[in-house]
Inverse folding.
């Protein structure tokens, strides 16, 4: 699936992998986020954190009439306020998608797949 953007010079098509890379990079910059997790964590090894090349496994992009809706699957650090970290993820992802890719974001849904304690592998 791709997102199509019409410009005066033509049409731009962005694949879900490009959007997932921007979303994953944005989410992992936030304090309290240990990393990204797979959306199907039980099947793909619940404990594994996703590397930059696999962010697409932890992001679901859905096209809507008003833009796109993004589901972000994260692993957070123990002791952080989950609601605040989630709000920061939503704001950063929405900001980066609109400024870097020019995509209007209708919703950013954050799912916490796991909590990691400092020093835990």
């Amino acid at each position: 699936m791709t997102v199509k953007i019409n410009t005066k010079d033509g049409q731009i098509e962005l694949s879900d992998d490009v959007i997932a890379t921007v979303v994953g990079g944005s989410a992992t910059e936030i304090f309290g986020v240990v990393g990204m997790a797979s959306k199907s964590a039980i099947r793909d090894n619940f404990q594994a954190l996703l590397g930059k090349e696999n962010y697409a496994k932890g992001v679901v992009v859905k096209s809507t009439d008003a833009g796109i809706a993004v589901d972000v699957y994260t692993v957070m650090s123990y002791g952080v306020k989950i609601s605040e970290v989630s709000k920061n993820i939503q704001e950063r992802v929405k900001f980066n998608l609109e400024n870097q890719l020019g995509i209007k974001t209708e919703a950013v849904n954050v799912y916490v797949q796991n909590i990691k304690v400092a020093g835990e592998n």
User: Anything to note?
Assistant: Strands lie at 2-7, 10-15, 33-36, 59-64, 67-77, 105-116. The domain at 2-116 is CATH 3.30.70.1350 (Alpha-Beta Plaits). The radius of gyration is 15 Å. The chain has one domain: 2-116.
